From TrEMBL:
<feature type="repeat" description="WD">
    <location>
        <begin position="265"/>
        <end position="300"/>
    </location>
</feature>
<dbReference type="GO" id="GO:0006261">
    <property type="term" value="P:DNA-templated DNA replication"/>
</dbReference>
<dbReference type="InterPro" id="IPR036322">
    <property type="entry name" value="WD40_repeat_dom_sf"/>
</dbReference>
<dbReference type="GO" id="GO:0006364">
    <property type="term" value="P:rRNA processing"/>
</dbReference>
<feature type="repeat" description="WD">
    <location>
        <begin position="171"/>
        <end position="214"/>
    </location>
</feature>
<protein>
    <submittedName>
        <fullName>Uncharacterized protein</fullName>
    </submittedName>
</protein>
<keyword id="KW-0853">WD repeat</keyword>
<dbReference type="InterPro" id="IPR020472">
    <property type="entry name" value="WD40_PAC1"/>
</dbReference>
<feature type="repeat" description="WD">
    <location>
        <begin position="119"/>
        <end position="152"/>
    </location>
</feature>
<dbReference type="GO" id="GO:0120330">
    <property type="term" value="C:rixosome complex"/>
</dbReference>
<dbReference type="GO" id="GO:0005656">
    <property type="term" value="C:nuclear pre-replicative complex"/>
</dbReference>
<dbReference type="InterPro" id="IPR019775">
    <property type="entry name" value="WD40_repeat_CS"/>
</dbReference>
<keyword id="KW-0677">Repeat</keyword>
<dbReference type="InterPro" id="IPR015943">
    <property type="entry name" value="WD40/YVTN_repeat-like_dom_sf"/>
</dbReference>
<dbReference type="InterPro" id="IPR045227">
    <property type="entry name" value="WDR18/Ipi3/RID3"/>
</dbReference>
<dbReference type="InterPro" id="IPR001680">
    <property type="entry name" value="WD40_rpt"/>
</dbReference>
<dbReference type="Pfam" id="PF00400">
    <property type="entry name" value="WD40"/>
</dbReference>
């Protein structure tokens, strides 16, 4: 069973609304939230993160709010140095990325709140941010139609912290603002799908940066998504229609295809603002400026349920498992990362030897490794690779070192917690012993005083008997 999370950007009072997708009833309402497009995400399996713009249309200031789904409480409010519009996070919920109207990009470590990197990513405002399917690349799209691909290993390199990072690729085929970025996980080509107000969706090879195909529409495209099998691409337009086409059409031959023979879903009266997919119900979820959310059956392509957002138009939607809203039973650990979060830093903190944190890098595949064909290699090449691996000069060796350091840190943390618990237990036992001794000493004093009283009484009554 899944739940639907939606929010708008017009009024802070509209907040976030969460519906049961099966029954259609409202499950939860979180007040005070107004997020721009691509500004609401699910962090791991237990937090909702939303960027906030203080005044609609003004990007002079803003905030980032974080709510725990299973424990309603006041959100963690962070106030970056400038407003953050798009947000994205890695699948393991370790890193959070945000983009600003100035073109700056920010990367934070989630649990500590430490800002790991900030740099001028684009000349125009950032509209979209997305991590690749393996979290090794960060993709950014700007208002001028440019898409840039950044290597996470380069961004997290402590030695290169103060220099301006260089992008992996710059994709310049779009002529208008970027409205959506999707990376596929099942393809060996590391495919990226982008949409734009120029009325096109483009398919790219992220490793080589080559354009593989273009889908041309008669309307500007405002949102995109694909099904879990990554076979179908859904493209929402400014006139409220949703186009459905195969994701592999023209893949590899840089072909241009029109929308003359595409399947079209018509159920909204205003521009599409967000698209998502429900894996349990196997239905497409669409939101529009007409303040409605539609659930589309993938077999009949009809609307099976319609939600009306009375608080105003919708800019973001997220589909989550309904179980995430249930409180955690005491003594059971449901999520795999720390449940405590810190405020996000305003500025990057300088790394020092005593305070330097070990950063877990995602699995990385270099361009040479990706393009090399499977075959026999000479003994000299193999020896050279073994030597480089032993000397730690390859990404794989770096990854193994980082993972080992992370494991050692986790073991040290666990042992520290164990020793702290033992210390608390011993202190508790010591207090109990002191308390028992005090009680025993008081009893002995009482018995001693009583004995003296009896002895005194006996001594005073002896002459009368004589």
């Amino acid at each position: 069973m899944e739940a639907l999370v939606v929010c708008g950007d017009k009024s802070l009072g509209a907040g976030i609304t969460i519906w049961d997708m099966e029954k259609g009833e409202q499950l939860l309402h979180i007040p005070t939230c107004a997020s721009p497009p691509h500004g609401l995400i699910l962090l791991g399996d237990h937090f909702i993160v939303a960027s906030q713009v203080h005044k609609h249309g003004s990007f002079g200031g803003g905030a980032v709010f974080i709510w725990p789904l299973n424990k309603p409480q006041v959100p963690i409010r962070s106030y970056p140095i400038e407003a953050i519009v798009p947000l994205s996070c890695t699948k393991d919920a370790i890193y959070l990325a945000g983009g600003a109207p100035s073109g700056n990009v920010y990367v934070w470590e989630v649990t500590s709140g430490k800002m790991l990197r900030t740099w001028r990513g684009h000349q125009k405002s950032l509209n979209c941010l997305s991590f690749s399917s393996d979290d090794s690349l960060l993709i950014s799209g700007s208002d001028d139609g440019e898409i840039r691909i950044w290597s996470m290993i380069s961004l997290l390199d402590v030695a290169d912290h103060d220099s301006m990072p260089s992008f992996f690729h710059s994709l310049l085929e779009h002529s208008a603002s970027i409205t959506g970025l999707l990376s596929t996980s099942g393809s060996s080509n590391s495919v990226l799908v982008s949409s734009s107000f120029d009325g096109t969706c483009k398919v790219w090879d992220m490793i080589s940066g080559r354009l593989l195909g273009t889908q041309v529409f008669t309307q500007s495209i405002t949102a995109i998504t694909h099904d879990p099998g990554e076979q179908l691409l859904f493209s929402g337009s400014t006139d409220g229609r949703i186009f459905v086409n195969s994701l592999d059409i023209g893949l590899g031959d840089n072909s241009v295809i029109s929308d003359n023979h595409l399947m079209v879903l018509s159920g909204h009266m205003e521009p599409i603002t967000a698209l998502s997919f429900s894996t349990s119900r196997l239905c497409l979820v669409s939101a529009s400026e007409d303040c409605t959310v539609c659930l589309w059956n993938v077999k009949s392509w009809v609307v099976t349920r319609r939600f009306v957002h009375k608080k105003g138009q919708i800019t973001n939607l997220v589909v989550i498992p309904r179980s995430l809203l249930l409180p955690v039973v005491e003594g059971h650990q449901r999520f795999n990362c720390q449940s405590r979060l810190s405020l996000l830093d305003k500025y990057p903190q300088p790394a020092t030897t005593s305070q330097e944190t070990i950063t877990h890098l995602p699995t990385y595949c270099s361009l040479e490794d990706h393009l090399s064909k499977i075959g026999f290699r000479s003994t000299d090449v193999i020896k050279q690779q073994i030597l480089e691996l032993e000397q730690g000069r390859t990404p794989c060796a770096l990854q193994m070192k980082v993972e080992t350091s992370v494991e050692n840190r986790l073991w040290a943390t666990k042992m520290t917690k164990h020793i702290t618990d033992m210390n608390k237990h011993l202190r508790s036992r010591l207090l109990d012993l002191i308390r028992c001794r005090l009680i025993l000493s008081r009893k002995l004093e009482f018995f001693s005083s009583e004995k003296k009283k009896k002895a005194k009484i006996n001594s005073s009554s002896s002459p009368s008997r004589e």
